[in-house]
Amino acid sequence: MKRNPWNLVTVVLFALLLLAVPLAFLLLPYRTFSDAERRYLADAPKLGEQDLSDWSYDDKVETFLADHLPLRNALVSVNAYATLYAGRQVSADVYMDRDGYLVEAPVDFDAKEIETRLTRIAKLGETAGLTPRLLVVPSTGWVRNGKLPKTLAALYRDDKALQKIAEAQGVSLVPIAGTFRADGQDWFYRTDHHWTADGAFAAYEAYMRAAGHEPLSKDAFERRTVDGYVGSTRSRSALWLTKADALTIDAPKDCSVTVTFSDDDATHHSLFFEAHLDEYDWYPLFLDGNHPITVIENERAEKDAPVLLLVKDSFGNTLAPLLVPSYRTIVMVDPRYSKQSVSELAKQYGADELLFCYSIERIATDPGLRLLK
Q1: Where are the domains of the chain?
Q2: What's the distance, CA 301 to chain centroid?
Q3: Chain centroid offset of residue 321 CA
Q4: Cα Rg, the chain, nearest whole Å
Q5: Which of 33, 177, 233, 315 is the most exposed place for a label (fewest CB within 10 A)?
Q6: Count of CB atoms situated within 10 Å of the CB of 168
Q7: What is the pLDDT of residues 235-268, one digit of tens each?
């Protein structure tokens, strides 16, 4: 009986594959950070006495091996595209719509949780003597609903949550959802969950009118773009062939500012920190990203110009530069990092207006909003 030579070839190839994987672990450069996933990779675990008793060492080893698997990026990306083309996106955290936009999966809204947060915000406003205005950013998936398969589109219920917020006592919802749904199909980045300069500008106009001010025209700002922006939804989705965006910046003309951060002793004189363009994440270009408290002093403001207290998540970082020309001082508070009393800050700086700028996901899920005072 003749032996099939292909059997021997198969055995040899399989043996070489078994040998190649551990050799690759040893010979390939050791990485601590994944640019594609925008996260730090697991370090090699150290064996401790407790690890042997609760089996946690096994979990750490498994995580380390998975993070440093040779060709990991290629394998993860192939799996992501296989999921996409097999029509199984409903199980993913990020979806791709028909135009190639990467949108976050919908949030499961809890009406009672939203009510609890709104009650807390209303109470804070009462203590500060100000009516809290809420600028709630709808999700990309809800805005671009018509670009998703019907099974996915039906899962986005932003309108129900926004209706709940609009009916709440003691707060005032700035109406932007209808404008975004009608006109804002390209007001979000293709590779990121944040709004573009056009989206931020539409929200700026809506807030200014709601607060009784006349918004400035686009001519009052200088727009420029930086090509090659890759946001968080592309990193998380592993759909890494998605075309990069152009990061858009609207800078107030003839603006002179002093910017200080509660966690930094330095004084700055710009709203934009371009050193971040040399890093993997460009979004902190706007006001150096998230700080507990950021204070912006407009050096050219009129003496009777109002003071704004802006409680925000990262969406507020791109909104604030648009607001600067109309205010004497803007105090930005990020409750994810700051435990300071918002009502006390309002009194300390003599705030005339209180604005909450949050994504709808944060309004629905951020536990810090339940602790505001």
Answers
A1: 102-371
A2: 31
A3: 17
A4: 25
A5: 33
A6: 18
A7: 888 888 889 999 999 999 988 999 999 988 899 9
